[in-house]
Design goal:
Helix content is 36%, strand content 25%. The chain contains nine helices and 13 strands. The strands form three sheets. Strands 3-2-1-4-5 form a five-stranded mixed beta sheet, with helices on both faces. The chain has a five-stranded mixed beta sheet with strand order 8-7-6-9-10, sandwiched between helices. It has a three-stranded antiparallel beta sheet with strand order 11-12-13, covered by helices on one side. The chain is globular, with a radius of gyration of 21 Å.
């Protein structure tokens, strides 16, 4: 079987997808990164291989996510692209007429505006964690509610509580205050979803023309309370695609498929990466007043990549 691999490595989750020539998902894995992206990729590749027919032929590999540079060198990726490109690619593949993409992952959020299958505007929030998967996990834990029940309970709310959602600190303190006042858990959860959606719209969609169809991607799309809150706030239908939680990896695999055309054999190093030696370090660049912290990753001592510099002086060396 000939397949294309897509790997999306983020701070919270590591996602892997195998596609066939037609772009259909053959297998996928969603794992927690747990601060160890290399180990997560190694484990994910092993588990993905077990889900595929024996001896699949990997034609091309794509990497994306915050850990895309490390992943690209580690696995021998043929193409490395940012998350905006990957998520837009997956959205257009699933729904060619898509015009707006809402993406909320474990640690950041993205808003992508698409017209005629081309990204014309986008915004990304990597500063405030309010509304991300990790924040919702924390609040579910604090309330003593399994995160899997979070969305269902939000739908049961009779009178959603007004929650301040402009930042994680205010949201959490306001939730504690409303609990002490005796508000029902379902009402607090629904109010939190509405607050986080308001925060997302004000930060990422302000001034943008929000047109249908609208796709909601990322792990948080599993939360029915967030889906309803978006529909209420935007007064439009929100579509959650079948593989919403791994759409970044899907887009990366699609990019790899396009890259494969008229190219040579893939640089993929195989599903078993246990024997690969690597070294990670960082240093401060004194080339200008920015004094950027530059990260260095070396694999098997023969190739090195850099990232983290604002001007591209080091990143362009690879």
């Amino acid at each position: 079987m000939e397949i294309f691999l897509g790997i999306d490595v983020g701070s919270i989750s590591t996602n892997l997808v195998a596609l066939d020539e037609g772009g259909q998902v053959l297998a996928k894995r969603y794992l927690r990164t747990r601060g160890q992206p290399i180990q997560a990729v190694q484990q994910g590749l092993k588990e993905l291989k077990d889900l595929l027919p024996r001896s699949p032929e990997v034609l091309s590999v794509g990497a994306t996510g915050s850990g895309r540079f490390i992943t690209g060198l580690l696995v021998g990726a043929d193409i490395v692209k940012n998350e905006i490109t990957a998520h837009a690619m997956a959205a257009i593949h699933y729904l060619p007429e898509v015009k707006t993409v809402l993406e909320i992952g474990g640690q950041d959020s993205k808003g992508i505006i698409i017209r005629n299958r081309t990204v014309v505007d986008f915004d990304m929030n990597t500063v405030c964690a309010a509304g991300t998967g990790s924040f919702l996990d924390q609040q579910a834990f604090r309330l003593g509610i399994p995160i899997e029940e979070f969305g269902r309970l939000a739908l049961e709310a009779q009178r959603p509580t007004k929650i301040a959602g402009r930042c994680t600190v205010f949201a959490e303190s306001d939730m504690v205050h409303k609990q002490q006042m005796g508000h029902a858990a379902a009402d607090i959860i629904a109010g939190l979803c509405q607050a986080l959606v308001r925060n997302y719209i004000n930060n990422l969609l302000k001034g943008k023309e929000i047109l249908e169809p609208i796709l909601f991607q990322g792990g948080v799309a599993a939360n029915q309370g967030m889906v309803r809150a978006f529909e209420q706030a935007l007064q439009q239908e929100i579509i959650v695609p079948p593989h919403y939680e791994v759409m970044g990896a899907v887009g990366s695999a699609l990019l790899a498929r396009n890259y494969r055309k008229n190219r040579e054999a893939s640089a993929f190093k195989g599903f078993d990466l246990e024997g690969i030696d690597y070294r990670f370090s960082s240093f401060e660049c004194n080339g200008c007043s920015n004094t950027c912290e530059v990260f260095e990753f070396r694999s098997n001592g023969d190739k090195c990549i850099y990232w983290g510099d604002r001007c591209g002086r080091w990143e362009n060396l690879q």
